[in-house]
Design brief:
The protein contains 10 helices and 14 strands. With 333 residues, the chain is of the alpha/beta class. The protein is globular. The N terminus is likely disordered.
């Protein structure tokens, strides 16, 4: 289908067509469903012609078209990248409904699965739509992007960092986002990163002059586990490597709280989820804590329901809520 948008911009005069139009007017933008008007293909329309057909007397608007490929076409036919229209609130409601249904089916407690809305590469406007629909936990993959969005979103947002974090970005991330807004770094897989995060939180706490033992003065982390064994995936190997790091962090990083484990897993291989469940049992035993005190962050847009079936307490869902991602203009500093 081809959509045409009428927006308040100076128009350029082009040849007209008499194809029938189906119109929908919202605010200052007019969208036309022209899928039945084959004459529009490869052509442009004058604002005057459109105004006549739509009963609009203001000829100061211009036509733009968005094709099914997601490219915005100007009156001169040149392509310009466009953000596809996404109903974030409706998508979010659908994901929540499916999570609730799966939780009930598995006879688990209502509210036992956290939804982290993965908003990487998406404009803040879409995050605000999710926020207005009640979403508070958001996941970001890039440190600079998270820091920027945190300054633009309300303070009660709970941020989860879910991408690879360079150790030199740990201090800026903690300082800029702050606690408890930065709720969790889900990708800790080395003592070097753990130490950097611990030191950053310690500096932040001292700068704020708050109580040393307050839970608000610790940063939650998940230990990332490579349950698939793929070289392309980051994370610790199950077994001794995971257990050793868990013990070292618990013993030497008082500003960090090991709140759970995270995995990505191989697409379609749900045994990766089962492996993370076993890893949690081993880590809980090594740290002397209750198994249920540790989160299982696993499952994304394509498999979060399967992850819930296998015990996930936190799922990371992005494109199902916000639409396909566009990395072309992303600043990954």
């Amino acid at each position: 289908m081809r959509l045409l948008r009428l927006s308040k911009r100076p128009s350029s005069t082009t040849s007209s067509t008499s194809a029938a139009l189906s119109c929908c007017l919202a605010a200052s933008t007019l969208w036309i469903d022209s899928s039945s008007a084959s004459a529009f293909s490869g052509t442009s329309i004058t604002a005057a012609h459109f105004a006549t057909r739509a009963g609009i007397r203001n000829g100061s608007s211009s036509i733009r078209s968005i094709s099914s490929s997601g490219r915005r076409m100007g009156a001169d036919g040149d392509g310009e990248a466009a953000e596809p229209t996404v109903n974030v609130a409706a998508n979010l409601a659908e994901v929540r409904s499916r999570i609730d249904a799966k939780v009930e089916e598995c006879h688990r407690a209502k509210g036992s699965v956290r939804l982290v809305a993965v908003s990487k590469t998406k404009p803040t406007e879409l995050l605000r739509e999710a926020y207005d629909a009640g979403q508070r936990a958001f996941g970001e993959n890039y440190a600079q992007e998270l820091m920027t969005k945190a300054s633009e979103m309300p303070e009660d947002v709970s941020w989860h960092f879910i991408g690879p974090l360079q150790s030199n970005k740990a201090a800026p991330l903690v300082k800029k986002v702050g606690l408890p807004q930065l709720a969790c770094v889900e990708t800790v897989a080395s003592m070097k990163l753990a130490n950097k995060l611990n030191n950053a939180v310690d500096s932040l706490v001292k700068d704020r002059g708050e109580g040393e033992d307050s839970k608000a003065n610790t940063l939650g982390i998940y230990l990332q586990v490579n349950t698939s064994g793929e070289e392309s995936k980051s994370g610790l190997s199950p077994g001794a490597e995971l257990i050793d790091l868990a013990r070292d962090v618990a013993a030497t990083c008082p500003r960090l709280s090991i709140d759970g484990l995270m995995t990505i897993g191989a697409p379609g291989d749900f045994s990766c989820f089962d492996a993370l469940v076993r890893c949690r049992e081993e880590v809980a035993d090594a740290l002397g804590v209750e198994v249920d005190s540790l989160d299982l962050s696993m499952g994304m847009s394509g498999d979060y329901e399967h992850a819930i079936e296998r015990g996930a307490t936190s799922v990371r869902v992005g494109s199902t809520i916000f639409g396909a991602r566009d990395y072309s203009n992303l600043n990954k500093k």
